[in-house]
Amino acid sequence: DLRSGLNLDSAKLVTIFNPVDFDGIAQLAESVNPFAGHGSGPHVVGVGYLAHKKGFDRVLEAFPALLHRHPAARLWIVGGGPDAESLHQQ
Predict the structure, then answer these.
(1) Which end of the chain has fewer CB atoms surrounding its CB within 10 Å, N or C?
(2) Is the Cα torsion angle 39, 45, 50, 56 positive or negative in sign?
(3) Is the pTM of this model over 0.70?
């Protein structure tokens, strides 16, 4: 995109690939099921910093509507932050 969109010289561009082990992640995803034994789902997973600006409180407010339509739904919130206790209480 840089080359064509900005008409840059290819000789001046270097690609640095993301150092993520995609094959290893794919193998783990096939061999480990963190939801095994926790119902058929759907499983909704939220991961992040537990602060008001991230909106996890809104996820918790909306989740009962999903439960109404899908009683086996499960919500998983993973993370830590200043709002962890209030979100747990909610």
Answers:
(1) N
(2) negative
(3) no
